[in-house]
């Protein structure tokens, strides 16, 4: 009896790759938490306690970067290495790692493995996935290495050879994986005016947030006209959101002494550019997030909610989801029945999917924000805006904070941990993992249409 | 030359009923503002000034109820009657009024008049619109009269015969039109424990927010099974949102001394019920909105954003829009290609329309909130949550406030005025009014489909 049930469970699992992904990520987080919970991981020599270890591990695996303790001060080198490994595995995606292992030990990739990877990377075809995985691994390490070299030009003179190299590697990986962890102690606030640090981190973050399929398309086709529709939408949306974020940040914060008010004009430009890059979804900051005006904080919340592009290390509802929604809205307003862009028509099911991602995303953010505002009502120094900021930062796996993370209650820590987890896997993957299968329809019968008034 | 251009403009207008609606409402608001700007409208005998007169007129015509001055204390009887007339005209819809006038003077209803009304009432067929208009007018006055009689049972003993009748009529109209204006001075806070006031106002608000087509369907078909899909969705969503609002308010505010904490259990139930009714989109309140916890305020913001049902005196994105979106999300999660409910399939174009309403609604709220948080940065006593509350209240033509309306700057007043206007006409009507016509497609050519990854 038990054996049959177990077998049924296994078959169920096989038929639901989303569930495998969810369980795999969860397992990785628990392994990480167990290691970070060891006394040797904390500089004090005393265990941090399981809730905080779990929080930190989830934050690393989900490449979020929210921290309840200062990463630089609290952890030993062992702890920091554990975090870095979790970031790298989380960033590459555990199935990409699993595929790598399979390749290394010569195991054949099964159809099921491919199905899981398809879910993870959000690809449409099964073919070419192995090639894609190899591409992902190699390009990740090459890009991170180049990034580390650039950072070393600043960090080695600043911190000495050994520590400089270690800092360069750590922050290159953290940036490319959009993890946002730093071991400097105040993120990039010390380097607010350093062009090399700002641009290296920014470029790593942007590259990490574009998604691997975009690189491949760009390197293979070279001309914008020849790109896939997906690539075109990712590029246009990414550039659009960067420009929007840059301009609003620069204009609104121009005279704010708590952020860029006291910087030179050139440094204002650098800092505004950096702050437009990082909400999507890097989590570094070169100016204090608590010091921004409410309007800027709200803009950052929206950018964090949108996040990066699919199949990347970024979180959020994704640039393409936002792009498809915008196009659909414009089509409705213009009275058009087809949603078109760049001479192509976007299928209805994609628009429905985008609507579902937006809807579930909003629902998660609303529920978590409301719950936190009830459980964290002792945080008198922090406003509702700060709590919303924290929630969306977790959902978008961004890692920016207005400063309240260390003051969260235990319940608050667990809620944010779960939010980071849902945010990394994506609302739809979570929903697919636990949704009841649709009932089989009898034949081709469809219900009759009936109209309904909306709006 | 000028004549030809004028003629072109007129033809343009005829072909765009949404534009006629927008201009008609705008004209009504300006007429109201001119009257309220007269010295005789203000109790002090001095003109209130045009910006505040415009704000009040827009708030009345758009049945919102946000006020920069206390309605009871500031206005003369003349001013109050002007406001009441604006509410009644705004509530019935100016085109319904125009049709009434046409009927009275025996003018034939033209196809163009019908097209405009179709836009206004959001109906699908042109036939039966005249019948519907007659039905709207008669039922409005009958329901308001009955409501006034019930209110008189409390208000006449409280305020004497003459003033009691005047208060009963004013608040019955204000409630049924979902206007939220009161001439008591503190909304319904004096009557927080009065069952007759609470239930009369609540029933008027709910009836006013259902939409006329729902009444007609219910009176004609009587059984739920026989109702139109539209009616079923309106009823299920309305009841669902009421229950949700009631439970959350009761549980969250149970011990809050600033709202219902000090009331008896029975009064707690009454007050929670009342507060679950009014965000959609009545604008009365029996407990202080500034006193609610952040979580409750956030819930009210969401209820205000959703609002009432189409073709009613209510604002917001509408219950059916929310219902269609929920159904579409569930369908995507379950892997279904058809969006179905009650044995009917919802057409794709309706789902697209719902997405557009949600998208434009969110965009408006985001832009207005950000702008206000910049222009009103002198309001140190009011938080970002209060500003969001104010914005959504205006957009949903609700009229609830955490208390900052009288402290808005002139720019803030104008922004809220415009937001109320957009909220009353609906985001899509506004968009239709000003959108460029779609270019003519050559033949039946459609662009080829191309997929794109979202979420
Ligand atoms: K991050
Ligand atoms: K109202």
Q: How would you describe this structure in keywords?
A:
homodimer, mainly alpha, transmembrane helix (chains A, B), globular, 455 residues, binds potassium ion, two-stranded antiparallel ribbon
Q: How are the elements arranged and paired?
A:
Two copies of one chain form a homodimer.
Chain A: H1 2-14, H2 17-36, H3 50-61, H4 71-74, H5 77-92, H6 94-104, H7 111-121, H8 129-159, H9 161-176, H10 195-210, H11 212-221, H12 229-253, H13 265-277, H14 294-306, H15 319-333, E1 340-341, E2 344-345, H16 348-375, H17 384-395, H18 410-425, H19 427-434
Antiparallel strand pairs in A: 1-2
The structure holds potassium ion (2 copies).
One potassium ion binds next to loops of chain B.
Treating each run of at least 4 consecutive H or I residues as one helix, how many helices of chain A?
Answer: 19
Strand content of chain A: under 5%
What oligomerization state is this entry in?
homodimer
User: Main sheet of chain A?
Assistant: 2 strands, antiparallel
Q: Using the alpha-carbon principal axes, give the shape of chain A.
A: globular
Biggest interface goes to:
A-B, 85 and 86 residues
For the largest sheet of chain A, list the strands in their spatial order. 1-2
In N-to-C order, the SSE pattern of chain A is HHHHHHHHHHHHHHHEEHHHH
β-strand number of chain A: 2
Query: Helices and strands of chain A: which structural class?
Result: mainly alpha
What is the total domain count of chain A?
1
Bound molecules: potassium ion
Transmembrane segments (chains A, B): 20-41, 47-69, 81-105, 132-153, 165-184, 196-215, 227-252, 258-278, 290-308, 314-333, 354-374, 414-435
Organism (chains A, B): Anaeromonas frigoriresistens
Keywords (chains A, B): Cell membrane, Ion transport, Membrane, Potassium, Potassium transport, Transmembrane, Transmembrane helix, Transport
Main location (chains A, B): membrane
